[in-house]
Amino acid sequence: MATYCKMMLIILLIFQEHLIASAYNEEEDIPSEWLLLHVVQGQIGAGNYSYLRLNHEGKIVLQMQSLKGDADLYVSDVTLHPSFDDYELQSVTCGQDVVHVPAHFRRPVGIGIYGHPSHLESDFEMKVYYDRTVVESPFGGGTYNPEDREVTQKQFHTTEDESQDEESVFWTILIGILKLILEILF
């Protein structure tokens, strides 16, 4: 009976390792048009920022995975020190954060990585991709660039974006408080 339990435990552990390995195999999900430029690994303390500069031209995709804790991503072409109060693009999930930096952003682009206060330290890995995708125009000839449309629409959505920013900060704070309460209770 003990041998049977040991065997089942070993099979269960092997199966669990296989599931974990396949969950972290992100290479299959990357489009062939994306070219890997850099891989940045780091650690950030709770409530602190780490800043990077992006000098590459063109459409860039920032894909950051929180390996431990919860690191959030803020991007700006206006300031080199973006934060949760001052940014143009953001991704603030508890797992993988992805930001598509448009080609029209002025270089250098500021990248802020924020260590969420719900964890004392956060480890992250960020992959920087160059997106070589060209979108064909549905009207024939030439190409259609969706980023050009974003530039003209940006001025019409500033008040809507500001209210979403405030909502995002509110939810980030609320989720952090709830996490702390759950950690205290359990």
UniProtKB/TrEMBL annotation:
Keywords: Glycoprotein, Secreted, Signal. It comes from the Eukaryota. It holds the Pfam family UPF0669. The keyword Secreted applies. The keyword Iron does not apply. Its main location: secreted. One of its GO terms (cellular component) is extracellular region. Residues 1-23 form the signal peptide. It is found in: Secreted. PANTHER family: UPF0669 PROTEIN C6ORF120. Belongs to the UPF0669 family. This is Chromosome 6 open reading frame 120. It comes from Varanus komodoensis (Komodo dragon). The lineage of its organism: Eukaryota, Metazoa, Chordata, Craniata, Vertebrata.
